[in-house]
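Reply to dn_fold:

You asked what the input looked like. This is it:
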Amino acid sequence: MVPNAHQGTTSSALTRLNVNAARLLGIPPAGYAHLLGLAPEHLNDDLCRPPALTSIRIAELATVHAHWTEVAQVMTRQSEIGSLGVWDAPRRR
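and this is what came back:
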């Protein structure tokens, strides 16, 4: 469950994943570079919460450019364990 303070946002790690997928799929940055939360200081801060609409828009552009299965494969290949920063670090017991 997402706390009320974070509704309408997503992790910067997921946004980074979407931006990288768009780049790998050859989507021109002009279609998404202006969106909120894509400044390097936001994307590189694992505690930053960019707007969910930013990731949604990039995903829309990606699925217009390539079939959703190709988009999913690109995202899967780049999301190995540990690639999502603090959001998928192994838990210590």
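The chain has four helices and no strands.
Hope that clears it up.
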